[in-house]
Specification:
mainly alpha; single chain; 64% helix
């Protein structure tokens, strides 16, 4: 998968996450190359989920 495909997939997943969790904003879901873990940490705090729970949610989208 190239970078363009990954970005396209993230846009789809981001939309689905926003539908599922209305408290999330575009800012919360802003993906920066190399900062995935930082973004997931912020999402964990905001949603009150563990890393494993959050990974399952994203994988199921």
């Amino acid at each position: 998968m190239n970078t363009t495909e990954a970005k396209g997939n993230w846009k789809e997943q981001k939309g689905k996450l926003k539908q599922k969790f209305a408290v999330l904003t575009d800012n919360d879901l802003m993906y920066e190359e190399g900062k995935k873990e930082e973004m997931f940490g912020k999402l964990q705090k905001k949603l009150g989920k563990t890393k494993e729970e959050l990974n399952k949610i994203v994988d199921s989208l």
